[in-house]
Every structure is written in structure tokens, then in C-alpha cells.
Amino acid sequence: MRNPRRLALPGRTVRLRFTALYGVLFLLSGVGLLAVTNLVALGSSRSTVPAENAQLRQPTLAAAQEQIGLLQTRLSEIHAVQSRQLLVGSAVALAVMAVVSVVLGRVVAGRVLRPLRTITTATRRISADNLHERLAVPGPADEVKDLADTIDGLLERLESSFAAQRRFVANASHELRTPLATMRASLDVAVAKPEPVPAQTIALADRIRTELDQVDRLLEGFLMLARTQHGALSDRATISLGRVVSAALDARAADITAGSLTVHDGDVHDGAWTRGSRTLLSRMVDNVIDNAVVHNHDGGWIRVATTSDGGTARLVVETGGHVLDQEQLSRLAQPFQRLGADRTGSGSGSGLGLSIVAAVATAHGGDLDLRARPEGGLRVAVSLPLADARAGVSA
Q: Are 382 and 368 in contact (CB under 8 A)?
């Protein structure tokens, strides 16, 4: 069981601890200074003799004794008044010193921690898309400089690792296309021989060709995912999500008709504009539409809408079907995650479609939201930064 006392103290930061430490040190210094001042003042007040003593010339014994008693009384009263004034002044000075100590402690702690805050801010700004940036903290060779240089070295190693990963994925995907093309050509040659080919051979060739097409799509998905996650955004333009969605629906008209699907696209309009890579954004929309068409049932429906709200352009695609588990849906944005054939009766797909959608959205400063509809089916919402339609070339 976790300690509730520790949970109740989330504000115990390093700056707060430094503030308390410096404040206590300043306060103790003030207390010591006031104590020394009080001791010196009290000692000097005791050694002070009123001037009236010097005016006594040849007094009688009784008069002298009476005068001495009066002087002692006055001296005691003056000493008591001075003590009270000194105590009040010391209390006020101590209160002022307490406030000043806290303020000075906080200022000093802030200046001490300023380089660390700078390092923290710069480190948060660096992500997988800009690993080439470095902290490059100036200053003398002290502990803060050593920490910054250590983080820069770590970023350099991470950049090299990411670059090696990109090269491996790209090279492997490219090299695998050659044997796939060779296998496909060998199948075509074997089936195209003049002598009669057994029906079993033709059926086997068709099945192998289907699997080769699936592997080819998988390699294409690898390349697209690697380019989206770690590549630079090329062919940037200002694009209308509505026009891209309309083009994607027109390209899949045959599949929509074959599945007897009803498409509700009345809310698709040209008001939702965003800026980014035309190729990647088109692929993102294609994957969302493909997901709605492939993972659907005969006679089902698809509702598509593009909206703009504040500074956000949004694409929303909904489908009907079985009631889905929201916890499982949250994993679909990861590569090779699928709900299985019990989702809509279709188990096809490489498991990269929605992960590519999520990667493209993130690369453009947006996000992907997957929601299970309470009455059954899936709601896919892609949010992207809104752009001005006059800012660039439309799509």
C-alpha cells in the first residue's frame, strides 16, 4: 500500500527545498546579527551614566543618598524602556528578515536551477522527428555543462540508432520486392504454358499470387510507416480534406457496390483545410476509408464527415456493426493489432492501416481517436491543424 502522506505532498520540488534551505540560512544569519546587536546595545546602556552625576558638587550625605536613589530609579526606568523598544524593534526586524529570507531564498534557488530548467525545456522539445537538435548549453565546465553534454551524447546515439532503423526497413523492404516479383513472374510463366495445366495447379497459383499481393502490401505499409514516423514531410501543400475524401470514395465505388454498402457523405465539404504532405495525407484518408469498407458487413453503412472547429480540421468516419471493446480499440493504432474476424466477419488486412493513420496524423501535429459506438460499430476521428485555404495549393 502506498504512503498517503507522500501522495499528499506533490509540491515538494527541488526549488521548494532550495528555497527552504536558503531561507533558513538567511534567517539564521539575521537572528545572529540581531543577537549581537542586542548584546552590544544592552552592554552599552548599562555602562552609561546620566549627566546629572557630574553636576553634584559637595552635597550633604542625605541629599547625596536621595539623589543617588532618584538617579538609580530613573536609570532603571530608562533601561526598561530601552529594553522594550529593543525587543519590539528586534521582533519587527525578525519578521521582516523572515519575509526577506524567503524571497531571497526563492530568487537564489531560481537562479541556481535556471540552467536545469533550460535543459529540461530543450529536452522536451526534442522528439524522434528532430533528433538532430542538440542542447549545446554554453558556460564553464561544471556539473550542469557535464549533464548537458551527456544528454547531447545520448541524443547523438539515438539519432544514429533511428537512422540505422530507417535504413534497415527501407533496404529490407526494397530488397524483398525483387524476389517477390520473380516469384510472381514464375507463376505467370508456369500457368501460361501451352500444354493443359491441372486445375489444382491453377488454384494453387492463384492462392500463392494472393499471398504475394498481401506480402507486397505489407512491405508497402512498412515503407510508408517508416517514412511517416521518421522521414521529412515532402510535397507540402494546403489540402482540402473534403476533396480527398470524395476522391477516395469515388476510387472505391466498386468495392462499396460489391458490399451493398450505403455511404452517407452529406457532411463532407470543403471547409476543412490542413497543410502537410499531399502523399501522406491522401494515404491517411485512403486507409480510413479502406478500413470502413473492408471491415464492414454486407448491406452495412458508412457515415463520413469533414468539419472545422476553431483551429482544428477533423475527419470522422463511422460504421455500424457489433459492439466493440474500447480497451481493444485503443491498441489498433499500434502496428499489427487487429480485432480479428469476429469484428465484422472479415479477417483480412495487414494490421498496419490504422497505425499508418496515427503516424501520419502525429507527424502533422494531429491525433487519431478511436471510439466504440454504444449501439455498435466504430467511430474513427482524425484531427489535424486547420489551415487557411488561401495559404497554398488546394487539393
A: yes
C-alpha cell belonging to residue 223? 515503407
Q: Torsion angle, CA of 174/176/178/184, rounded to 10 degrees?
A: -130
pLDDT at 204: 86
- Look up residue 368 and give its three cell numbers: 487519431
Cα 136 to Cα 145: distance, rounded to the nearest angstrom: 9
Q: What are phi and psi of 303, to 5 degrees?
A: -115, 125
SS3 24: helix
Kindly list the structural domains of the chain, giving each domain's residue range(s) and its CATH number in brackets, ordered by start. 4-43+71-125 (no CATH), 143-230 (1.10.287.130), 236-391 (3.30.565.10)
pLDDT in tens, 142-187: 787 888 888 888 888 888 887 787 777 777 777 877 888 888 888 8
Distance CA 71, CA 49 (A): 9
Residues 372, 376, 382, 383, CA torsion sign: negative
Buried/exposed code over 31-52 (b: 16+ C-beta within 10 A; e: otherwise): beebeeeeeebeeeeeeeeeee
For cell 499470387, the residue is 209
Model pTM score: 0.57
Q: Which residues contact 197 (CB under 8 A, 6 or more apart)?
A: 190, 191
